[in-house]
Amino acid sequence: MARSGALRLLAGVRDGLSLSDQAGALKALPPADQARAGRLAAEVLRHQSRADAVIGAYVSRKPTPQVADVLRLAVVEMLHLNGAAHGVVDAAVNLTRSLGKKGQAASGMVNAVLRKAAGHQGWPGLPPQPMPDWLRGPVAAAHGEAAAQAIEAAHGAGAPLDLTPKPGASVEGADPLPTGSLRLHGPAQVSALPGYTDGDWWVQDAAAALPARLLDPRPGERIADLCAAPGGKTLQLAAAGAQVTAVDISPARLRRVAENLTRCGLSAELVAADALDWRSDAPLDAVLLDAPCSATGTIRRHPDLPFLRDGSGIPALIDLQARLIDHALSLIPPGGRMVYAVCSLLPDEGETQVAAALARHPGLTVETPVLPGTDPSWITPEGGLRTRPDYWPDRGGMDGFFMARLRKAGGGG
Ligand SMILES: C[S@@+](CC[C@H](N)C(=O)[O-])C[C@H]1O[C@@H](n2cnc3c(N)ncnc32)[C@H](O)[C@@H]1O
User: Fold this and answer.
1) Structural domain range at position 107
2) pLDDT at position 186, please?
């Protein structure tokens, strides 16, 4: 059942739906099968080019998209997830037969191809799935070819589960990371983990937890968290004792902020608004702007992203980010601070945005990030902090983020 669920999810991605858009699509399956279907679909997307290389060695004619997904799923199960060949091949043949007349005609071919693929020796040496050209070009230009390959390998490895603990909280069995996050390896049902109902922690990638730390919130400070949902950074700011206003354009996504705050026993003011139109009633001490972006730093956990995007939306995002930076700066007093962050691998959304903001705002400065557990080599020439999926390879990587702490001209600070 999980396999047919995975195929349904893959067909959805080919139709332009993200895996998270399809969260309700498998409701009829038991929860464990839904979870396994999601994991299988994600692994196929992470290794599609490698699976296609294996399949290509044994097919004489290009299979239909549906049959291609059955073949890819079986190859990934056998060669990557160490599934027992006989069970995987039988299941794939049955799934092919269930695809109607064309499937029945293809089932013999599927059986023959997969029996040969089961003995394929070259899987570990196959190159990782390449990033799409619109992403690979700028990443390789900024960081070099070796880094682009290392990032691709990190995308293939997927992501562990990171938690941000409330001050003083711990989670049994989780590895503490140098930056203060906790890391769990292997699949886990989040709501069944110790401390979930008590709200001792929330799910947040280790790199995603850095922008709020960079802002260095103090108890009692009034801080606006712009573009706040689902609220990982709002929770960090509130847990540090700040008076937080969380602004997001999406009321539905803000509801998730509310749920997370309630579970963790924290509070913040929630405002559903376009951040570009929002102004605070009372003076602010600081702003955190986690701007909407290409999300290309999160491909480890969202392997569907390269299949759904073609890069055409990026110029509009870059324009929006620049306008949000200018507006955020208008919200803080002279001498006030803001952190700009994006979960993007693209310099145009990170390093270049900050360089452009410095040029637009005379007197604006970037403060060198000093964050426990981060490496000085992550600091960029603009004075921001760049994280990449290939960092911490032995620990399981981290999301790609760019962040910078900006100090507005004037004031005493
Ligand atoms: C990268 S996510 C934010 C993640 C969040 N800061 C966290 O840590 O959980 C970007 C968010 O920006 C919101 N957004 C996009 N455009 C916006 C705008 N013009 N004003 C306010 N929020 C916006 C989206 O609804 C989305 O929730």
Assistant:
1) 2-125
2) 79
Q: Which amino acids bring their CB within 6 angstroms of ligand 1?
A: 227-233, 247-250, 253, 274-276, 290, 292, 343
- Residues of the chain with confidence (pLDDT) below 50: 413
Question: How many domains does the chain fold into?
Answer: 2
Domain boundary among 101, 125, 149: 125
- The response to whether 248 counts as a known ligand-binding position is yes
Asked if residue 229 belongs to a known ligand binding site, the reply is yes
Distance 254 CA to ligand 1 centre (A): 9
Distance 61 CA to ligand 1 centre (A): 45
Q: What is the ipTM of this complex?
A: 0.99
Structure tokens at 361: 């705002």
- 190: which 2 tokens? 């989040």
Residues pairing with 288 in the sheet: 225, 339
Q: Which amino acid, 332? A: I
- The confidence score (pLDDT) of residue 73 equals 98
- 349 close to 314: Cβ distance less than 8 angstroms: yes
| pLDDT for the residue 412 | 56
**pLDDT for the residue 78:** 98
Ligand 1 atom 1, closest CA: 292
Q: Whose CA is nearest to atom 19 of ligand 1?
A: 274
Same domain, 121 and 176: no
